[in-house]
Amino acid sequence: MAAHILHVDAPPGSRSCLVADSPHSGTQYPADFNYACDFHELKKAEDTAIDRLFGFFPALGAPFLQADFPRAYVDPNRKDTVTQKLAQEGDQPYVGSETGLVRRKCTPRSSQHVYDRTLSLSEVFNRVAACHKPYHDKLAQLLDETVREKGRVVHVNCHSMPSTLQRGTKQNPFDVIIGTYDGATCDAAIAKKLQQLFTAHGYKCAIDVPGYRGAEIITRHGDPAHHRHSLQLEINRALYMNEDTLVLKPEAVTVKAGLQSIMADFAAWCDAQPGLQSTATPKPPKSAR
Question: How many CA atoms lie within 13 A of 178 on its CB side?
Fold first, then answer.
């Protein structure tokens, strides 16, 4: 197992009502991973540099939770489908999806399979117990602390997305996509305000585009009716990195500065809205991002 599972960068001063996290930027590959694919191809599953691009959150008063384990090992943005199954049916081969809780393929567009063997339910359960559950427990703790202190929380779940869609067959028309699971995890006014801030900075920004509406993290932790607003934020990788080499472009500095300016304005706006009422609809069934 990796030496570190996760870490939190805490605000040095007063706290905002914002909490941020980056679940897919971990780079500490556990010794028991035993993958059989090309390592560089496997690393393309990461949200490369998202932890660095959003590293300013603590300076804005927002704690910033980051996974140290890699997404390909076990994905905290996917539902735990093994714990109950293992308890009810006992150990057996694990049949996962291409890019599920424990992915079979490096990326949706890749021809490379991660393993040359079949994993077991118990092996996947161990990953869930060691990484997936602690990540969600820590995030829940941060959100609870903020609600107790501020009366509400706005959770920003940070990700990157490819510059092409539909397995590389279509150009991604958006620079930024905000996901609220069609309003189930975050008040519409909050998402709209963030979209306006991105648009004002010249970004093409949309809300709840199919395939990027959100997944396990925001659907588990977002509860607008109880003042817990959770949104997924996707940044187009082509803005700041070479998607093949995974090397950051010089433009990454400008992108980070723009993100910091936007999030500073967003934090100030959210902190000034203590009486914001929820207009959220009931949560629909979950689906993978």
Answer: 28
* Count of helices and strands (H, E) across the chain: 8, 9
Burial of 117 (0-12, 13-18, 19+ CB in 10 A): exposed
Strand partners for 105: 113
Residues 57 and 11: their CA atoms lie apart, in Å, by 8
pTM of the model: 0.93
CA distances from 166 to 162, 163, 171, 174, 213 (A): 10, 11, 9, 14, 15
CB atoms within 10 A of CB 139: 24
Residue spans per domain, the chain: 6-271
CA separation (Å) from 137 to 76, 169, 286?
11, 38, 19
CATH class of the domain at 6-271: alpha beta
Secondary structure class of 176 (helix, strand, coil): strand
Strand-pair category, 228-236 with 176-179? antiparallel
Task: Report residue 285 as tokens.
Answer: 């069934």
Using alpha carbons, select from 285, 152, 287, 155 the residue that is nearest to residue 225: 152
**CB-based burial label for 145 (10 Å; 0-12, 13-18, 19+):** middle
pLDDT tens, residue by residue, 169-190? 789 999 999 999 999 999 999 9
Residue 199: both structure tokens together: 């648009």
Give φ, ψ of 88 to 5 degrees. Answer: -85, -35
